[in-house]
Amino acid sequence: MDVPVAVKLDAESLLNAVGQDLGARGRELAVRDVVADGGGASGVADGRHVWVGVVNGELIGECDCLAGELCAHGVAVVLAAVEAGVVFESLPPAEKASPEKQRFTTAAARLGRRELVELVAEHAVGDRRLATRLMVAAGELGAPSDDEIAVVHRILVDARRLPDGHARWELRDLLDAGRDMVTELEVLALRPVNDGVLDLADEAASVWSSFLTALREAWDVDPQPISDGLAAVHVQLYEASRVAPADLAGRLAVLYADLADDPFLDVPEAYRYVLGDEGIDEFWDQAEE
């Protein structure tokens, strides 16, 4: 099975590999917002959004200048990433695009820039996920603010009141609340993940766990798809965070104690990638205290 392999890059070897002319042009460009991303690094060089990485041993770049190969913007970003200490991983070649994706790619390439921009904007108005991905890719949207975190927190507070409140509720209200929680977390997962987002993920897991007793006793509802969706996005958010494994292990230990006797989250095994062996040990040390 192909797995990422750490690659040591330094400025001198990079410049030798790309050539004197391209290297010189890359060094002249202003770079900002460089972060580790998908085994490589992403950032903005001279106003262009770039991802650079090592695929099958070869340095490649994806830039909205549409150069089709490693460009000066990519060189600028990888130089800044190396200086910032980003560790690159050699990734296996990407699988060939599906025929359907290739068909849409070909169609989009036939459109003029203005027509394509208007089409994307039109659909982003009615699609929160597309709108969020667009704004993140454009550098207009970063990690959620405290106010944005508070809005989602209010949704979770209102959901938690359903089984325990005095207002009348039905099982479908719990399912609807569960779907809403999954949607909110999936949208947040498209943005940089901060501590506030992790707090929301843990809170949503706790709320959903409190619903499961009532839902599992009913014969005419199936909560499993929502449990699976919430579990998947919870792992995704933990993996996307920059929190130290030991701190994540502590979070999971607290959450584990708060869940029902049959937690729907596969704790800690589903988090082994981000925790590592030491993090798993730390989790059990704290969970058994």
UniProtKB/TrEMBL annotation:
Instruction: State the PROSITE patterns in the record.
Output: ZF_SWIM (PS50966)
Report the residue ranges that make up the SWIM-type domain in this protein: 48-82
Q: Which keywords belong to this entry?
A: Metal-binding, Zinc, Zinc-finger
Would you say which domain of life the source belongs to?
Bacteria
Q: Protein name, please?
A: SWIM-type domain-containing protein
